Amino acid sequence: MKIIIAGAGAVGTHLSKLLSGEKQDCVLIDESAERLAAMGDYDIMTLQAQPTSIKALKDAGIQGADLFVGVTPEETTNIACCILAHELGAKKTVARIDNYEYLSAQNQAMFQKLGVDSMVYPEVLAAIDITNGLKMSWVRQRWDVYNGALVLLGIKLRNECEVLDQPLKDLCGPNDPYHVVAIKRAEDTIIPSGLDTLQLNDMAYFMTTKDYIPYIRKIVGKEHYTDVERVIIMGGGKTAVRAALTTPDYMSVKIIEQNAERCDRLNELLTDNPAMVIHGDGRDVGLLTEEGIKKTQAFVALTGNTERNILACLSAKKMGVRKTIAMVENLDYVGMAESLDIGTIINKKTVAASHIFQMTLKADVRNMRQLMFVDADVAEFVAAEDSKVTQKPVKALGLPFGVTIGGLVRNGHGILVNGNTQIQAGDSVMVFCHEHKMAVVEKYFKKSTLW
Fold first, then answer.
1. pLDDT attached to residue 448
2. What is the pTM of this model?
């Protein structure tokens, strides 16, 4: 597949690295020689040029491009170069935006007529993850499929966990209400087999159905965690606004922002929302105490400074807040944040890049996510008619090492998958695998009769 990316910023470089690992034909365009030089260790072509240059787009091979991605810092540049790319022959285009009104169905249809096939707003995607994390104080990461028909829960295992040190084959049988689909242990990522066990301090990913979430909470020893009702957000950027607008009605939200002008803007944006905007420093212990940090169940740090977010979450934990969420823009800090037991970590560029990456797959992929704490991806594949995955039971498919199927949705009903499960055409199937294997996995789900 031929893919051209305009913009070697955070999203563009991360997406390029993903595509490099999947051996895709990728060209990265940017004006900065320095940013392009940083990609020298990856198997991609680079082109120093203006993304809106018609000559540059032609030099990059736009006439034969399967996908063009505009992810420069400027929304107008992204839209402009997508329109140009479409006119010059790109089969599909996607633009990074920062204007929420563009995502309405009517406006998206208008942009599609102009040549912008899809739009990605990273702050909206990040806010969804934040809201999902707030709904469960005892979960580090949550992902719902089909409105909860299937649920993926990332949970840190402590001493209270009832299922430690037992082979998974004894815990996750055909009739059990959950599967463990991935484990992060120290620096290692495990796509587990039946002989693997859950151990103290593992980050374990459970696939289950909505009805069995209370059961999972019990066996992992998290029933004593109080549910989130009060939230303090440090930083009043776009992600904070989207998070405040999407939190459930039963949660009260306070946003602490240092910039007075931004506070005024937040009050305008949140006119019809009960969130309270406070002018001040979210690291100020006195201010936090005054605003009720002792009675707050969740603290969310969303400033543009990773170190500040991590330190603020540590401080909140010391003041008794059990649920903390930190925006970590520098991936080099993810390991440190995890070792400090920060809690949930949000990275906009990985969320956005994964969302775009699914467009590069030829199979029908409805959603894809790179799991933050583990070197693994999860994707929702729809099984095509006569695809390989529908020909035999799961145990006879010969799935590659490091790949597992956790569950599927059939006619709106979530079903956990075991070796005897027969996948049918039209099933939405949740697939987990180590990084850089999605291109191999998709072959099982594409339409074909030649097996």
1. 67
2. 0.87
Q: How far is it, in rounded angstroms, from Cα 248 to Cα 201?
A: 30
pLDDT tens for each residue of 147-172: 788 999 999 999 999 999 999 999 88
- What pLDDT, in 10s, does the model give residues 266-278? 999 999 999 999 9
Three-state SS at 9: coil
Q: Is 398 exposed, middle or buried (0-12, 13-18, 19+ CB in 10 A)?
A: exposed
Rounded Cα gap, residues 248 and 136, in angstroms: 12
Hunting for tokens 């990265």 — which residue is that? Answer: 28
Fill in the amino acid letter for 362.
K
Burial class (CB in 10 A: 0-12, 13-18, 19+), 355: buried
Amino acid 126 reads A
In this structure, are residues 383 and 424 in contact, taking their beta carbons and an 8 Å threshold?
Answer: yes
Which residues are CB-neighbours of 408 under 8 A, at least 6 positions away? 150, 414, 415, 417, 421, 423, 427, 428, 429, 430
Contact 102, 76 (CB under 8 A): no
Tokens of 263: 């506070």
Around Cβ 449, how many Cβ atoms within 10 Å?
8
Taking CA atoms, 295 is separated from 61, 228, 232, 316, 411, in Å, by: 58, 10, 11, 11, 43
Is the CB of residue 15 less than 8 Å from the CB of residue 39? no
Q: Which two tokens stand for residue 326?
A: 């930190």
Neighbours of 129 (CB within 10 A): 23
| Distance, CA of 222 to chain centre | 24
430, 382 Cβ separation under 8 angstroms: no
**Residue 273 CB neighbour total at 10 angstroms:** 15
Return d(Cα 168, Cα 204) in angstroms, integer: 12
Under DSSP, the state recorded for 384 is P
Q: Residues near 258 by Cβ (< 8 Å), separated by ≥ 6?
A: 279, 280, 281, 282
Distant-in-sequence, close-in-space partners of 322: CB < 8 Å, separation ≥ 6: 137, 225, 226, 297, 298
408 and 428 in contact (C-beta within 8 Å)? yes
